[in-house]
């Protein structure tokens, strides 16, 4: 059990841009922290610097208040689960789990007891005599976790442990990891590129982009109060909708209609001609599904629905629109950062499953402006960040 | 129809190759069972099967001491070569160091260096160093000529072992040496086997060094000793006795190949297929 602290940690592979740039992060004892970001964001490098498989170019890593920069991995007492599990193919499951204990020269009966306990916890009892090659993906994953658990290490480190599993198994193992962590109460750092894993597993989530830490917060805050365009676009599926928003005095011109800004926001957006407005798909609704009181609180607009995806519990409608040049560039950059295909300028709208809006027709939709974010297209900064919904609420046109 | 015909075709072609390659071997085996002047019987098979030649061979001090030399020198050379190659190949596969390419290309250069060109100078050097006609005098050239191949074979193997294996071992508490010994070497065992067998064959079959760098029974290996064979009596051609000796030294090689056949094939192709 230990607290992990990163201070100004930087990693430079000598490729010009540092892979990890001045990361400061404090992980409390027993906390479950997720490092998330698209590929190349440096999240795995951060993890590998914590465990000691990668040298730290500058900055310090502390485990339980001891500086570990110069310690070998074996002296840091951390347990790690690798993406490909890294089980030893020539050893049985039992010996795989026992491997760290054998290295520490523990007596045989204690090895047996601890391996037995880990195997019980992970329901691996019947597989102990098998070799890893004879196990399924999920079982191998459990063996890798078993090897981490027996150590009674100061912290667990996971490097994309679920990415080799199929989608169904991934969900199961995810809950399993969550349960295990709750039960053992051990400090955990978990690296993933999957924002669903990030949102569901962690106490706190740290979002990385190109080696720079963007925002560290509980999942709900990240989702509702993203600090910039990148965090807003990265978390959420389908992702947040971004629209160009022209500013004229206290009016915001969106492709779908005009919105009046509150006084604080007018101050905030002063000097900008154009902004990027971000609205999550679920903050739209089919206007005909709402009562008049609610309808009056938001912006009602007509839109041509291109495609409908009906999922049973909800449905997504796709509404294309034209974006002016000034916002297209930052949105393109965002798409590249997020490992996505070029974002088509369209709105994805999450509608009630009961809604009868149909493909290829015009529909009357409704948008909740109080949940809208405004981003500076140049810096990507969220101008509406840090306000309560009260303060940043925008009156409808 | 087509498949039947092609199968017959392949069968015939295979048979032709088998006959072509095995005929000399069969001829030697047959010769080794011919007694006395029977080698001139103008027949393929002996007119009377006899073990006389084998008895002669084992009775002569020349052959038994040569056999002892061959086994000892080959085994030691193999062990040294494989041990060194394992460490070197591991470094080449895992570490980034200056001169890595140089080591690899130097190894290759040694492997293609004609042995005959070295023999003369080695002969002079060994004499002045006082290791002429000793085991060590043969072990050194054998090791240096088998090392390159072993290094190449083994580094191909090490490269295929995921790096996470030893990183996992290190996180689990292993020193780099422990990770190497407990995780990497067992995983590379087929490669180590392949390298060992190839090295052993080289040392076992060598004739040039064997005959040039030895003078007496002290270190002369079998292939060289065969050239000094006289047979049972001075007046006889030693052909049959030499054949018997050849058969005897071929047996361990054949046995090795048969036992480790699968491993050798797996070892030789594994680097090529997965890259």
Describe the structure.
The complex is a heterodimer of chains A (397) and B (275). By secondary structure, chain A is of the alpha+beta class. Chain A has two domains: 4-224, Rossmann fold (3-Layer(aba) Sandwich), CATH 3.40.50.300; 240-375, OB fold (Dihydrolipoamide Acetyltransferase, E2P) (Beta Barrel). Chain A has eleven helices and 21 strands. Chain A has a six-stranded mixed sheet, sandwiched between helices. In chain A, strands 13-12-11-14-21 form a five-stranded antiparallel sheet. In chain A, a hairpin with a 2-residue loop joins strand 9 (204-209) and strand 10 (212-217). Chain A is elongated, with a radius of gyration of 25 Å. Chain B has 275 residues and is mainly α. Chain B has a domain at 61-228: MetI-like (MetI-like fold, Orthogonal Bundle). Chain B contains twelve helices and no strands. The two termini of chain B are 38 Å apart. In chain B, 33% of the residues are buried. At the A-B interface, strand 6 and helix 2 of A face helix 7 and helix 8 of B.
